[in-house]
Write a structure and sequence with these properties.
Layout (H helix, E strand, L loop, with lengths): L1 H4 L6 H15 L4 H14 L25 H18 L6 H4 L8 E5 L15 H8 L5 E5 H7 L13
């Protein structure tokens, strides 16, 4: 996840050799030694959740929805959604949330509709509005049918609104 929040590739070709070397290093190590090796590796890594200075990345503070991050953001939001649902007395549906082939799978939804005008007094520009609209803190998961039925309605115009 450290690499993902800094928009650094994590695919097979980008990680294969590094993981092979790590596997050789940790093979048959006792748990205590394994912990030390992995903790040391993380501490030495120049990529963390705060950013990646050499690449000018800002880490999780700049994680926004785009083509690269969409699937990772989905998998960050799914456990948070399940946690909130369980806290609200609903069943734990995490396994269903991450199953993208299930009927009525969840969609990533923006909290703010894609309409700058109602929010222009809160942002210096439309670009700033879009940056915050696509920030991970401005996203949630909704069932696909619910998401599509709300379209671009404001929160107060949906059945979710607490008045």
């Amino acid at each position: 996840m450290r690499r993902v929040v800094n928009y650094i590739r994590v695919g097979y070709s980008a990680t294969n050799y590094a993981m092979w070397l790590l596997s050789k290093e940790i093979r048959q190590k006792p748990l205590a030694e394994l912990r030390l090796i992995l903790a040391e590796r993380l501490n030495k890594d120049d990529v963390d959740f705060e950013g990646h200075e050499a690449k000018g990345r800002e880490g999780i503070n700049d994680l926004r929805l785009n083509q690269f991050s969409k699937r990772y953001i989905y998998h960050l939001l799914a456990p948070m959604t399940a946690y909130i649902e369980v806290g609200a007395g609903r069943p734990d549906l995490f396994d269903k949330h991450v199953d993208r082939d299930s009927k009525n799978a969840l969609d990533i939804e923006h909290i703010w509709a894609d309409k700058y005008a109602p929010f222009k007094d809160q942002f210096d520009s439309q670009e700033e509005f879009q940056r915050w609209r696509n920030h991970i803190a401005g996203l949630l998961l909704l069932p696909a049918d619910v998401n599509r039925s709300y379209q671009d309605k404001s929160y107060v115009d949906t059945p979710l609104a607490i008045v």
